[in-house]
UniProtKB/TrEMBL annotation:
Domain of life: Bacteria
Organism: Candidatus Schekmanbacteria bacterium RIFCSPLOWO2_12_FULL_38_15
Key words of the record: Signal
Record's signal peptide: 1-23
Ranges for domain IPT/TIG: 137-218
Pfam family, one: TIG
Domain Bacterial repeat: 58-129
Protein's UniProt keywords contain Signal: yes
Keyword Repeat annotated: no
Entry protein name: Bacterial repeat domain-containing protein
Length: 227
């Protein structure tokens, strides 16, 4: 355990003359302390020096440059945390990769995951390349087939791959909620509808940059309606 040394000034009394005195006090959180006092005329100083325990969290990406990890902001520097700090880790795969698991001082496939800093930690975030068919994605159905902007729809089909990608409603990109090789759940994006409805063509682009066939979707004006 490393120690970060801080100074707690309890009392600083400076006597400049018999007719003038100044007293100041600053209180800081104290974990362990050792009092130091020095008496001399005309200066008297009383202070506490205390230490705070902290540990290092080292994150490794494997293979290199296949993703990143977001983590709770360190207490000190880039990777030092106070004793018993609960650190949240979120693995973010790079394009064409998916997260596999955590190894080292954290054994888990959960994402995000938490780790308690009670010692120095060395953790590896493991990613793997998306194994995609060379075939183009195929959309077979969109359910529901119509609705207004903001509703959730499921796109069913094949060869979407498990590594994510892009869904376009016309030229507008949709927000992805879930993505698998045979099903994608998205939020219908904000599309201007001047009449009762506007028909747009939906298409999928997978992690291999393969583009699917298109399926029509009616973006409705007003309340959500289903066929």
């Amino acid at each position: 355990m490393r120690k970060l040394f801080l100074v707690n000034f309890l009392l600083l009394l400076i006597l400049l003359s018999s007719s003038f005195a100044y007293a100041g006090e600053i209180n800081l959180p104290q974990i362990s302390s050792k009092a130091i006092e020095k008496d001399s005329s005309p200066l008297r100083i009383s202070l506490n020096v205390f230490s705070v325990g902290y540990y290092y969290l080292n994150i490794t990406i494997s293979p290199t440059s296949t993703g990143t990890v977001d983590k709770t902001t360190p207490y000190w520097g880039e990777n030092a945390y106070l004793l018993d700090t609960l650190v949240a880790l979120t693995a973010i795969p790079g394009t064409g990769y998916i997260f596999v698991n955590w190894t080292g001082d954290l054994i888990s496939s959960a994402n995000p995951a938490d780790v308690t800093m009670n010692t120095d930690k060395n953790i590896t975030a493991n990613f793997k390349i998306v194994q995609c068919s060379k075939k183009k994605p195929l959309i077979s159905k969109i359910a529901p087939a119509n609705g207004r902007s903001g509703i959730t729809v499921e796109i069913k089909g094949r060869f979407f791959c498990s590594g994510g990608g892009m869904v376009l409603f016309g030229t507008v990109e949709a927000e992805i909620i879930e993505w698998s090789n045979t099903s994608i759940t998205v939020v219908v994006p904000d599309i201007v509808v001047k009449k009762q409805f506007k028909t747009v063509l939906v298409k999928v682009k997978n992690a291999n940059n393969k583009v699917s066939n298109t399926k029509p979707f009616k973006v409705l004006k007003g309340p959500v309606l289903f066929k």
